[in-house]
Amino acid sequence: MTKLKLASFQDDKPVRLTVSLPAALHRDLVAYAEILARESGKAVEPAKLIAPMLEKFIASDRAFAKVRNSGKKPSAPQNGASQANWRAPG
Questions:
Q1: What is the mean pLDDT of the chain?
Q2: Which residues does 4 contact at the CB level (< 8 Å), separation at least 6?
Q3: What is the distance between the alpha carbons of residues 47 and 42, in angstroms, rounded to a whole number?
Q4: Which of 37, 27, 30 is nearest to 7 (CA)?
Q5: Cβ atoms of 46 and 32 closer than 8 Å
Q6: Gap between the Cα atoms of 39 and 41, Å rounded
């Protein structure tokens, strides 16, 4: 059995977000979904993997966790993101 980083995911109420992916990344996402479906025995829609993959990525980013837990706001918006929309959870 393959040891994937994403073993399962919860289907929560989504927030609609539109993104454009490079073709190579989309192919990898489709391949990942196919492998996960084969391993779990359940069909997996590739688009539904994006949120849990991002959650895993963010959860494993120690620098992000350190800043987030310190209550500091990011110093500058990245890639057009608005700093005003960022807020610490709580």
A1: 79
A2: 32, 35, 36, 39
A3: 15
A4: 37
A5: yes
A6: 6
- φ/ψ of 71, rounded to 5, equals 85, 0
CA–CA separation, 84 vs 38, rounded Å? 42
| Amino acid at position 90, single letter | G
Residue length, the chain? 90
Q: List the structure tokens of 40.
A: 């779990």
- pLDDT class for 35, splitting at 50, 70, 90? very high
The residue written with tokens 């979904």 in the block is 33
- Return phi, psi of residue 4, to 5°: -85, 150
Instruction: Using the predicted structure, report yes or no on whether residue 8 has a pLDDT greater than 80.
Output: no
Exposure of 67 by Cβ count < 10 A (0-12 exposed, 13-18 middle, 19+ buried)? middle
Query: Is residue 15 a contact partner of residue 58, using CB atoms and an 8 Å limit?
Result: no
Residue 58, CA distances (Å) to 36, 38, 70, 90 in order = 21, 26, 16, 17
